[in-house]
Amino acid sequence: MIIIFDQENQLHTKFKTMKIVKFILSLLFGLMFINAGLNKFLNYMPMPELTAEQMKLFGAMAEIRYLMPLVGAIELIGGLLFIFPKTRALGAIVIFPVMVGIILHNALFEPSGLMIALPFFVINLWIIADNWNKYKPMVCS
After folding, report:
1. d(CA 28, CA 49)
2. How open is the CA angle 79-110-32, to the nearest 5 degrees?
3. Separation CA 21–CA 57 (nearest Å)
4. Rounded to an integer, what distance in angstroms lies between the CA atom of residue 75 and that of residue 141?
5. DSSP state, 87?
6. Cβ proximity of 58 and 50 under 8 Å
7. Which is nearest to 136 in space by CA: 126, 84, 128?
8. What's the CA gap between 67 and 61, in Å, rounded?
9. 94 Cβ contact partners less than 8 Å away, ≥ 6 residues apart
10. Which residues of 3-40 are buried (b: 16+ CB within 10 A; e: fewer)?
11. How many angstroms separate the Cα of 140 from the Cα of each of 112, 132, 133, 134, 137?
12. Helix, strand, or coil (residue 50)
């Protein structure tokens, strides 16, 4: 009986630890996207050095005047949703297309950036997998 109680206590401790880890990672993830979204509107962070190919790409995106404000709004809203446990599942789905774009951009133009982008992508996928039961009714009929 004591062994069973100890196993339950260990399970409870692991669950509590995972909940804390998930909250901390979600908070950092959300704050990163809030910062990125605000920067799209306020331009307070300096632009990194761009290659000619990247300048051409960003020039093309700048031609679509609403694109960067739209991405900024999605990052801001998704980041806010990601922080709070009740809205985290929605935030993970809202942010997912932006994360795919970040991964593709880094893979194609700046592979060194994958060292930062991939862990955030894994966090996004983890939260989606963790909330899969909330998405199931939309996917499976």
Report:
1. 25
2. 15
3. 37
4. 30
5. T
6. yes
7. 128
8. 7
9. 74, 77, 78, 81
10. eeeeeeeeeeeeeeeeeeebeebbeebbebbbebbbeb
11. 38, 11, 10, 11, 5
12. coil
Burial of 52 (0-12, 13-18, 19+ CB in 10 A): exposed
* Single pTM value for the model: 0.85
Reported as a single tens digit per residue, the pLDDT across 49-99 is: 888 888 898 888 889 999 999 999 999 999 999 999 999 999 999 999 999
Structure tokens at 109: 């133009």
Across the chain, the runs of DSSP E, i.e. the strands, are none
Nearest to 107 by CA among 93, 118, 123, 97: 118
- Measured distance CA(85)–CA(23) in Å, rounded: 8
Give dist(CA 108, CA 23) in Å, integer.
31
pLDDT by residue (tens digit) across 97-117?
999 999 999 999 889 999 999
3-state secondary structure of 107: helix
Its sign, for the CA torsion 59, 71, 139, 119, is: positive
